[in-house]
Amino acid sequence: MLRVSNVRKVFDSARGTYVALDGVSLSIEGGEFVCLLGPSGCGKSTLLNILAGFEPATSGAVMTGDTPVTGAGRDRVMLFQDAGSALLPWLTVEENLRFALRVRKIPKSEWPATIDTYLRMVNLDNHRGKFPSELSGGMRQRLQIARALAVEPKVLLMDEPFAALDALTRRHMHTSLLDIWQRTGKTIIFVTHDIAEAIALADRIAVMSVGPRSAITKLIDIDLPRPRDLTNPKVAGLFNDIEALLAPDLQRLDAMEAL
Predict the structure, then answer these.
(1) 3-state secondary structure of 135
(2) Whole-angstrom distance, CA of residue 161 vs CA of residue 89
(3) How far is 258 from 142, CA to CA, in rounded Å?
(4) Residue 91 to residues 81, 95, 102, 148, 167, Cα–Cα distance (Å)
């Protein structure tokens, strides 16, 4: 589905050159749920923007199937942390979906069934006349997910979508997202700095090092049934292993901040 081959990303500014990513390679299968995990400054969002086609790689290649990624495409949709900013506040729940279908030039004859399907899927069917400001944070994120799914992408790219939610709502969103993923079979690439979140959601976790020259330091397969309980000894052991893997980078970040 997605292949990242030796990707390098360099940013040039008046202050000099910064190598954000260096030698990143990753293959993601269709229908897989992959988390990009690491602390702030490890290039997770930069890599996601390259996958979305919002940023070009300085060198290396990104492919969807046999097609190079050279810009945004209908096969990929990005979901952002702040759903309130991503949604159109002057449009109702249903109108936000209509807008997405119009932009993607989906035939109007398909709109009613598509809107009904995805609003029911995210449990917003009874809220279709409300504006985003009238929804809770979790409901706004579910609306953002419904709007993304309505245009039938193959890949959902999610940039810390639940980071601004309280712990209880976040756990509920994990359950909702996994249900949607299992029902739709979409490929999901999910950015997070939360180890527990990555373990709860992913088939595989790609652990990234802190920049400059960020790279994927380890790929971790999670062969555990869902839902995953952090009190389960296997899950707790995996959490501790990942925490130990990240510890040197976190210590380096603390030292850099102290300076």
Answers:
(1) coil
(2) 18
(3) 39
(4) 20, 5, 14, 16, 28
Domains of the chain by residue range: 1-67+171-232, 76-152
Report mean pLDDT in 10-residue bins for the chain, 259 residues: 94 88 96 94 91 95 91 90 89 97 93 96 96 94 95 94 90 94 95 95 95 92 90 92 88 68
CATH homologous superfamily of domain 1-67+171-232?
A: P-loop containing nucleotide triphosphate hydrolases (3.40.50.300)
User: CA–CA separation, 78 vs 190, rounded Å?
Assistant: 10
Look at the block and give the residue holding tokens 């040039």.
12
Burial class (CB within 10 angstroms; exposed 0-12, middle 13-18, buried 19+) of 51: buried
Distance, in Å, from the CA atom of 205 to the CA atom of 146, rounded to the nearest integer, reads 25
Distance CA 139, CA 147 (A): 12
The three-state (H, E, C) secondary structure of 97-124, written as one string: HHHHHHHCCCCHHHHHHHHHHHHHHCCC
